[in-house]
Design a protein that fits this description.
The protein is of the alpha+beta class and 301 residues long. Helices cover 33% and strands 23% of the residues. Strand 1 (138-146) and strand 2 form a beta hairpin.
Length: 301
């Protein structure tokens, strides 16, 4: 006879929540309530507007809360940028220092060369029995006014006859000539600037020694006239006084050649000159106490 095997199904028993799960639910309830309240506050503050501004209350709260953090972060970033900028400035300063040292060395060499040439010239003048180059007295003056009708063309300075200033005395700066005295009072004098269209200066190209005349263009530029179109003129070439106008001593710097218009059909060059003296913004000048009788033409000069 066979053996019957009976397999019974064990019924699943249902468990009832114990005291442990109840305690966990009670512990979570306050947090859930707090989260719901916080979300409600956020929603309300998002829609609410501050009475003194158009900004939402939430935005104002967040900006107020994070403002100190932003300030601290901004300060840190500014410090980093400042440190980086200082490093870059120091690097640039070192590069400029190197360039300036090179320029100083170059200028020192040029100065020594000029002194050597001046010594050789003095020796040559002595050997040729030529009179020494005259030394003219000068006084400093301040520009106290400008002629409003001819702006940048005439200046008023604070020196006059009481200081030994006379009509037609030249006025210069360390950079070059400014103009000449055209009228003088006890404690003031009027200067006609070389860029005035009525001004004239005997001048020549420093390299070729070709002579002409400086005429003002009623701007901050002048023109060198009467230079033959067959004459070679270089841009940047210096122009100096000839001394033949009996106003300006010979050899004073006038300006440099800015442009040249060469017309093969014209007898003269059209040469625009940029004055080396800042005639349009000069504040301090020197008056050379020299008179026409002191400027005797010396062919040996």
């Amino acid at each position: 006879m066979g053996i019957e095997v009976w397999v019974g199904v064990i019924p699943r028993t249902q468990t009832t929540p114990g005291p442990m799960s109840a305690n966990a639910a009670q512990q979570k309830a306050p947090w859930i309530l707090a989260a719901l309240l916080l979300s409600q506050v956020v929603l309300m503050s998002t829609n609410a507007r501050h009475p003194d501004s158009e900004q939402s209350v939430l935005r104002i709260w967040m900006v107020t809360a994070f403002a100190p953090v932003v300030r601290v972060g901004d300060a840190i970033i500014s410090t980093i940028k400042g440190t980086g900028g200082s490093y870059i400035d120091v690097k640039h300063a070192r590069e400029e220092n190197i360039e300036l040292r090179e320029k100083v060395d170059q200028l020192a060499a040029e100065r020594n060369s000029a002194l050597e040439r001046a010594a050789a010239l003095d020796l040559l003048r002595t050997q040729l029995a030529l009179p020494p180059l005259p030394q003219y007295r000068e006084i400093a003056a301040n520009v106290i006014s400008r002629d409003a009708s001819l702006w940048f063309r005439r200046l008023i300075i604070d020196r006059g006859t009481l200081n030994g200033v006379k009509r037609d005395m030249p006025v210069i700066t360390s950079g070059g000539i400014v103009g000449r005295i055209i009228s003088v009072g006890p404690n003031f004098a009027m200067v006609q600037v070389i860029t005035d269209k009525h001004a004239g200066v005997g001048a020549m190209l420093q390299t070729s020694r070709a002579m002409g005349e400086i005429r003002g263009l009623d701007s901050n530029r002048s023109e060198l006239k009467n230079i033959s179109s067959s004459e070679k003129v270089e841009i940047g070439e210096s122009i100096v006084t000839t001394g033949l106008d009996r106003i300006y001593p010979k050899g004073l710097l006038v300006g440099t050649v800015e442009s040249v218009e060469a017309d093969p059909n014209a007898p003269w060059h059209k040469i625009v000159v940029k004055p080396t003296a800042p005639v349009d913004r000069v504040e301090h000048v020197l008056v050379l106490l020299v008179e026409p009788k002191d400027l005797k033409f010396d062919e040996g000069k």
